[in-house]
Amino acid sequence: MEVRFRLNGEDRSVDVGPAQSLLSLLRDGLGLPGSKNACEQGECGSCTVVMDRQAVCSCLVLAADADGADITSVEGLGSDDALHPVQQALIDGGGVQCGFCTPGFVVAAAHLFESNPTPDTDEIREALSGNICRCTGYGGILRSLEGLAGR
Amino acid sequence: MEIERPTDIAAALVALAETPDATVLAGGTDLMVEINFGHARPDRIVALRRVGELKELNGSIGSGVSWARLEQGPHRALAQAARTVGSPQIRAAGTIGGNLATASPAGDGLPFLAALDAEVEVRSATGSRLLRWDEFLTGPKQNALEPGELIHSVVLPEEIPVRQEFGKVGVRNAMVISAVMACVMRYDDGRTRVAVGSAGPTTLRARRAEEMMSAESSPSEAAMSEFQRIVSEEVKPITDHRSTESYRRHAAGVVARRLLERCLEAG
Description:
The complex is a heterodimer of chains A (about 150) and B (about 270). Chain A is of the alpha+beta class. Chain A has two domains: about 1-75, Beta-grasp domain (Ubiquitin-like (UB roll)); about 85-150, DNA polymerase, domain 1 (Orthogonal Bundle). In chain A, about 30% of the residues lie in helices and about 15% in strands. Chain A is built from five helices and five strands. Chain A has a five-stranded mixed β-sheet, with helices on one face. In chain A, strand 1 and strand 2 (about 10-15) form a beta hairpin. The longest helix of chain A is centred in the C-terminal third of the chain and has 14 residues, at about 100-115. With about 270 residues, chain B is of the alpha+beta class. Chain B has a domain at about 165-265: Enolase-like, domain 1 (2-Layer Sandwich). Chain B has helices spanning about 10-20, 30-35, 65-70, 75-85, 90-95, 95-100, 110-115, 135, 205-215, 220-235, 245-265; strands at about 1-5, 25, 45, 60, 120-125, 125-130, 135-140, 140-145, 150-155, 165-170, 180-185, 190-195, 205. Chain B has a four-stranded antiparallel β-sheet with strand order 4-9-5-6. In chain B, helix 9 (about 205-215) runs antiparallel to helix 10. The longest helix of chain B has 21 residues, at about 245-265. The N and C termini of chain B lie far apart (about 55 Å). The interface of A and B includes residues 67 and 130 of A.
């Protein structure tokens, strides 16, 4: 089945399988493995993307239902030459341990900073409450982003 | 798998009439988990995301209104409940209609609807029906929807008390399905409503506790304790992987009492 959407600023037309999630489409169909596949039930946030200006779990989006949507995955946020400020802040602040959860945190945090460039600690915690870090590296992530917020 | 993506309610109802066995997809936070784990493999899906009418929020609440929006009001206790649903990602996707359709005993939006005796408007290509919340929720994960019907909106009564509180007990703050939850409302004339979730096969009302407290114009400490005791007595919880029958019974009384205290403090 053909689905059209905008992905990281480019119009795409792709063939999706039955019962395929947007996460699976991104990773397996479009060669974008930044969004991670872990829980497949919306618990961990490692597959977070922004769809129509809202951060959502791409594992809970039916790819066929993404038709017409505007989607940004972590690949759309920065490049090796020009990191997104959230990515740079996490590097500078030691906000990365094993790195598996990092793309989801980057997307969720970038989404927060887009609407609120100077969030306080509670706002950062709240915005990241749907992202789980199994290394329990929350302190570093929080401090990195507090730094970015100028706190 | 075939998918219909209607952009208005009429087209959605036609699609459902043509394929009454189709699975309805709203926010996806329940259905996609079933699909991802291979527990559901629907042949036909009617996706409602593009139906603007279902997202309307004025007097009634469209079934497609997300928790993220309900978190912003206008109903205090429903906003408190919305705030406890999942995470920001889940609240952006999940809808109140999905809560009703899934009909989980732990549905966070349901105690608010039960406390108000809200009605559910369901529509099909041939007409519409209004079902009171307890006619709609027929059992754990069971509802009164017939093939070809979808949930259009939730209709609230005209009189809605300002003093309304929702509270939930779980093992942590975010991303938790509750061990027990309650919604308490107090009208100006003293009428009191208590709805409890995760403490029975469906959301339930503690009607004896309501009756007892509705007769108290300024409840004494003893009356509050009696209220708590009756709520604990009236709920019908089970022991499962999330909590035990006895803890839920105890917590239901405690939560209901605290919420009532907050209602009374609010003047």
